[in-house]
Amino acid sequence: MNQIYTIYQTLYKHYGAQGWWPTFDENIKDKTFEVALGSILTQNTTFTSVETSLQNLHVENAIDPDVILNMNIDKFKTLIKPSGYYNQKAEYILAFIKFYKALDGRTPSRDDLLHVKGIGEETADSILLYGYEQCEFKIDAYTKRLLIELGLVDAKVKYKEMKKLMQDSLTQEIKDKKELLKVYQEYHALIVAHGKKFYSKKPYGVGCFLKN
User: How far is 42 from 89, CA to CA, in rounded Å?
Assistant: First the structure.
């Protein structure tokens, strides 16, 4: 039995389609940049805090790389302050914008993204999965806690090992690439929905119905 796929089916049946990325504004012209911006801002914080920062930027019509580049840096830091680590994240966003503009509409490789200052594996996979619609499964803290609690991985497991487990398990069941992409996106979002209820605070997994 493919336990990883069974978990997905169980979560989907319980929570239904999540429809992520949780975009701030459907009318934003550059959805890819919004995803990248949100992915960087959400490092070490909650998406609720990120939404406040995105709201601030939206008011200034600044969910746009050129607008941010031309903005006073102190003003930009103030706008993203709700997401925390605003000095560091401002630096990362500016580095990403330089990289993004040089792409000129091309889809970056994962390796290229990982060479951008401030872009780690989770952020890179988030940008690729939701911004560029590439089949790169995103592993976050909820995913790790869930897999450990269910006994599917060891507590010392590395990011790439968890990602390989998820992707290998899902590609065994789903052969169509478009369907696989949809499942990757939904699965991560479902884990977030489930994680908020059962894996936010220690002890993790209390009441988690997946244990049954």
Answer: 10
d(CA 189, CA 20): 6
pTM listed for this prediction: 0.96
Domains in the chain: boundaries: 3-20+136-211, 31-131
Give the closest residue to 103 by CA, choosing from 90, 112, 94, 111: 112
> Is residue 85 scored above 90 in pLDDT?
yes
For the chain, how big is the Rg over CA atoms in Å?
A: 18
Region 114-136: mean pLDDT is 98
Region 184-195: what's the mean pLDDT? 97
16-62 residue pLDDT tens: 999 888 776 777 889 999 999 999 999 999 888 999 999 999 999 99
Structure tokens at 47: 């998406």
Residue the block writes with tokens 């500016």:
94
- Mean per-residue pLDDT for 149-161? 97
CATH class of residue range 31-131: mainly alpha
